[in-house]
Design brief:
Belongs to the asparaginase 1 family. It comes from Pseudaquabacterium pictum. There is one protein chain. By secondary structure, this protein is α/β, with parallel strands linked by helices. The protein folds into two domains: 195 residues, Rossmann fold, CATH 3.40.50; 98 residues, Rossmann fold (3-Layer(aba) Sandwich), CATH 3.40.50.40. The chain is built from seven helices and 14 strands. The strands form three sheets. It has a nine-stranded mixed beta sheet. A three-stranded parallel beta sheet has the order 12-13-14, with helices on both faces. A two-stranded antiparallel ribbon has the order 8-9. Helix 3 runs parallel beside helix 7 and helix 5 runs parallel beside helix 6. The longest helix has 16 residues. It starts with a strand and ends with a helix.
Length: 321
């Protein structure tokens, strides 16, 4: 399907969390040596004259480099999003975010909230002080998506492309078009402030905001281990001894695991530790052998799988499964 939809002028709330989009450097041509999270969300909004006078509100939820994203910030952000979505006057939410963990935040918000209104994550690969900063255009595009009639669910907008929360991946270290939706392709593109949509909006049954009510310092400890040539099992045994509560293994190719690592993981699983398998490959899903039980993380990235296992453990802790 392909549809082109004009946006309407509903109220959009922009929640700031920091990131490169809010970064600054003392050298205008510096795109890598900047310091993230230096500009407020109000400053970012002021840098987009096209939004002046439009029904937009701004609030700062956090101010950090997204590589340092943590459970407490996720908890505060999810609560802020839910609170704003409950306001009848609000048509959609835009979240300014760093690129490093954007895909994790997007997946978590969609899993917990599955919002009936749009929640749009926006970021930049260049700081606000760059000679050709990409943040202002990305922010303008994100607001256009948030104002699109019928928009719903959590998406990310960067370099003119719209990515669904369950598909988006950062796939490049430097380019401004650093994000992809893999085999499925982007949900749509923004062209001169108008969304041209190719696929449906994200949907699903929300797990519920109360799932994140636990003390964020006590969220279940889940780690990712990776299979590779000459892999060893000592790391897994050390994690188990230290009290890890779940493991995700990013296997090679179609989820294969080095025999030494597999032995340690099998022992951990036999002792009752949940072990989920996915692939370290950027594209594709795990295709099970005939008669094999599919992995619960077959179609997930390692980072999505870690969050999914955390949420499952939180649910079990609350008596939900």
């Amino acid at each position: 399907m392909t549809s082109t939809i004009e946006h309407s002028a509903g109220t959009v709330v922009i929640l700031g969390t920091g990131g490169t989009i809010a970064g600054a450097s003392s050298v205008a041509g510096d795109n890598v040596g900047y310091t993230a999270a230096q500009r407020s969300v109000a400053d970012l909004l002021a840098a987009v004259p096209a939004l002046a006078g439009s029904p937009v509100e701004a609030a700062q939820v956090a101010q950090l480099d997204s590589k340092d994203m943590d459970a407490a910030t996720w908890q505060a952000l999810a609560r802020a999003v839910a609170r704003q979505l409950a306001r009848p006057a609000v048509q959609g939410i835009v979240i300014t975010h760093g690129t490093d963990t954007l895909e994790e935040t997007a997946w978590l918000l969609q899993a917990v909230l599955a919002p009936a209104k749009p929640v749009v994550l926006v970021a930049a690969m260049r700081p606000a002080t760059a000679l050709a900063a990409d943040g202002p255009q990305n922010l303008l595009d994100a607001v256009a998506v948030a104002r699109t009639p019928g928009a719903r669910g959590v998406v990310a907008v960067l370099a003119g492309q719209v990515h669904a929360a369950d598909r988006v991946r950062k796939v490049h270290t430097y380019r401004t078009d650093a994000f992809s939706s893999g085999d499925a392709g982007p949900l749509g593109v923004v062209e001169e402030g108008v969304l041209r949509r190719f696929t449906d909006w994200p949907t699903g049954t929300p797990l519920g905001l109360d799932l994140l009510d636990a003390d964020p310092t006590g969220w279940p400890w889940v780690e990712i281990v990776t299979s590779h040539a000459a892999a060893r099992g000592e790391g897994v045994r050390a994690l188990v001894a230290a009290g890890v509560q779940g493991l995700v293994v990013a296997g090679t190719g179609n989820g294969s695991i080095h025999h030494a690592l597999a032995a340690a993981l099998d022992a951990a699983s036999a002792a009752g530790l949940p072990v989920w398998r996915c692939s370290r490959c950027a594209g594709g899903v795990l295709v099970p052998a005939p008669g094999a039980v599919p992995s619960p993380a077959a179609g997930m990235s390692p980072w999505q799988a870690r969050l999914a296992l955390q949420l499952q453990l939180l649910s079990a802790r609350r008596g939900g499964g």
